[in-house]
Specification:
By secondary structure, the protein is α/β, with parallel strands linked by helices. The protein is about 50% helix and about 20% strand. It has a single domain, classed as Transcription Regulator spoIIAA.
Length: about 110
């Protein structure tokens, strides 16, 4: 049952956001999201982020609940944004090349 009080529940994550801690952190985040109408996540004491941590960071950013972050989280977030941007540019270039080719032209090189 969700708590419908006005103030958001603050979930503070600390330490490592890595593949070792990912399952427990994910459970913690989803449990808090199920119990509380509004959720804020404080990452100010996170000390390490790997690929699994980036996945969790991406999830938290997508629902817009991060209220504080550490320098490590800021760096990981910047890498995540740069990766998304680069992927979008790559997709755009591929679409442009496909659109520019004639319908009968082969797309093989």
């Amino acid at each position: 049952m969700k708590n419908t009080s006005e103030a958001p529940f603050v979930l503070k994550l600390a330490g490592r956001m890595t593949h070792e801690s990912y399952p427990a952190l994910e459970d913690q985040v989803f449990a808090a999201m199920r119990r509380h109408q509004q959720l804020s996540v404080d990452l100010s004491e996170v000390t390490e982020v790997d690929l699994c941590g980036l996945h969790l960071l991406s999830l938290l950013q997508s629902v817009g609940v991060i209220v504080a972050s550490s320098p490590i989280v800021e760096q990981a977030s910047a890498r995540l944004i740069a990766t998304h941007h680069a992927a979008a540019l790559g997709r755009s270039k591929v679409r442009g090349r496909l659109a520019a080719s004639s319908p009968g032209e082969s797309h093989q090189r």
